[in-house]
Amino acid sequence: MKSLKTNNFGSVRQPDSFEELLELIINCQLDECGFRTRMWRGQGNIDWLVHSSAYRRILPTNESSMVRYELGLLENATHKGYRILDGRELCDLELLARLQHHGAATRLVDTSRNALVALWFCCISQPRKTGAFIGVHTHHLGGFEGTPDTRPYKEIVNELEEYDYPFTWEPPAVTGRIAAQHSQFLYSSVKDTPYGSLVLPIEEDATWIIAITHELKSSSIEILREAFDIRQLTLFPDLDGFCQTNSYNYSQYHNERW
Asked: Which residues of 234-257 are buried (b: 16+ CB within 10 A; e: fewer)?
């Protein structure tokens, strides 16, 4: 497989085709683990470091400013009534997840348990740029999928400084798009690392950065849409998503696959 020298991530893999990329995904286990489960993230431009949206919003950012910001965000959202969903009070992480998926900036970094979903996000953004398709092996993450975390926000973040790897958390399906996107979040304390402010593991093969050229983006989008039904309409199965895919930005027949 070809390699590409990048400014931020050094030399990274660069597959030539969707088939070559798929083979790489299938064979991405670590030898000592024996399983291939990774959390996947797609970024449209390989020149971007891995930062949370909150980090980009409140620059300059450190851990103390992040905590102040998110506590204020939680307080304001609670005051507006967004903590209550379908008659149930959301815990702090659930509320942050709900806010994140409606566009608010939080420390939570979106990933997906489904590699092809993450690939779609990589390909749809910055279509003329080479993107970064990122896979973090779960052997190097704290946390699990399918496990609730109802602890208060302060209790969660107070322990982060002790660890040199991120934690992962699967939100409940508090929105339809969380379920459709196989959403899983990564989060850590705010630190200056080679990959960005998110503390990603640096052990060999723990974090994969794969270059997706603009040519591969174009062919992958077509395959994902036609063969796997992965597209904007299915990944955003709510009123906002439906209206967006039927806006003036798209042709009249954009949502028809044949």
From this structure: bbbeeeebeeebeeeeeeeeeeee
